[in-house]
Amino acid sequence: MNPRDYDLEAFWMPFTANRQFKAAPRVMVSAQDMHYTCEDGRRVLDGTAGLWCVNAGHCRPKIVEAIRRQAGTLDYSPLFQMGHPGEFRAATLLAALAPAGLDRVFFCNSGSEAVDTALKIALAFHRARGEGHRNVMVGRERGYHGVGFGGISVGGIPGNRKVFGSLLPRVDHLPHTHSLADMAFSRGQPAWGAHLADDLERIVALHDSSNIAAVIVEPVAGSTGVVVPPRGYLEKLRAICDRHGLLLVFDEVITGFGRLGTAFAAQTFGVTPDMIVFAKGVTSGAVPMAGVIVRRGIHDTVVNGGAPGTVEFPHGYTYSGHPLASAAAEATLALYHEERLFDRARALAPHFEQAVHGLKGLPHVIDIRNFGLMAGIELAAIPGKPGARGHEVFMKCYERGVLTRVTGDTIALSPPLIVTEAQIDEITGAIAAALRETA
Ligand SMILES: Cc1ncc(COP(=O)(O)O)c(C=O)c1O
Question: Is residue 279 within 6 Å of ligand 1 at its C-beta?
């Protein structure tokens, strides 16, 4: 088949306005480091690390070579009741990166699967302790935890929920932590809003703590448009969970692997959850991989709770710990270490902050939020047309050769950690120019 001989209509695109896209397709054919090349020859600077995942930059030779080598050595081996060295090595490396105490790793293929897995681990843990009545899950408004039924149930993005019926029963939600009136244009963590964590006490009182299994939040909410936790907020959540025996799960699908300047947001904020959900940056996006890093005691309770010879946790995927994904993870984690990319992200964060906050005062900008190498630039919506202005700015940036991401009317930025200061300025420069020409 000729590379361009395809039927655009045959592919039902995910999270895409299919008709709009197919009227003016944007098709990428190759990538290297910070840039894509598109089918029309256009070069595009990656301001978003793909979908928040290409943290090491594109097609890095050591990752590519590791995947190639693995594909020619062991393409697949059954992953239930059998093992291969790569998955144990990848798990060992991840356990070493995680906060102390979290050192048991369950592999999945997507963030959505990993979220569902974490919820199941919470249920299995409480049941193994004889507290199977703890089955209420607490998420947060505006949270994004993927698209499985578990993830959309604890998630809080209305558009992702409204079509899909009654979802999981026994779920409650904390209030989200964004308030334009109280925190617009905060740099880093807003000073206002720690008290919003106290709402967890209200939820505990409503359901009774004896019925609640876990609380799941993104440490910095990404897909809703980058919402940074108020100072003291995560600490409060941790304290309330401890007081009532609730597990705290951090969904670090976006915040993991250096996005905030450390391996995980848990380390940046100094708050240790009971489980970390990871995906994306673990392989720098090169092969799908995700998983859950679990506090050892939770693992031991579940695994030691079953009779010897039985499958202790009846859960897993055909591709949990796939050889190619494991090889990609191993090479990616080695590259992060060799190039000190997490430190690099931390060192670049002040310049990034300065650059994005330099957009304040431009037309339509009503808030700018940032932490590490993540930022959200929120625009005033056109009345009656939510998302339209954001899309226009996204398209204008693309025309200028810069890829941004738009969620609603918020432009989200999350460049690969290899970005240079000049490239950061190029990204914000394109946004500034696009805003100036947007009605
Ligand atoms: C915080 C968070 N959790 C879960 C997911 C879902 O991951 P996936 O798209 O790999 O299923 C995402 C994806 O962006 C995410 O940002």
Answer: yes
Report the C-alpha gap between 64 and 230 in whole angstroms: 39
Record the pTM. 0.98
Cα–Cα nearest to 341, from 281, 426, 395, 396: 281
Among residues 149, 159, 156, the alpha carbon closest in space to that of 17 is found at 159
Alpha helices in 13-84 (DSSP H): 18-23, 49-52, 61-71
Please state, in angstroms and rounded to a whole number, the distance separating the CA atoms of residues 336 and 330: 10
CB of 63 closer than 8 Å to CB of 332: yes
Q: Could you report the per-residue pLDDT of 188-228, keeping only the tens digit for each?
A: 999 999 999 999 999 999 999 999 999 999 999 999 999 99
* Pair of tokens at residue 106: 């369950």
Cβ of 414 closer than 6 Å to ligand 1, yes or no, is no
253 touches ligand 1 (CB under 6 Å): yes
Question: Among the atoms of ligand 1, which is closest to the Cα of residue 52?
Answer: 14
List alpha helices for 323-385, DSSP H.
323-338, 341-357
Tens digit of pLDDT for each residue in 59-106? 999 999 999 999 999 999 999 999 999 999 999 999 999 999 999 999
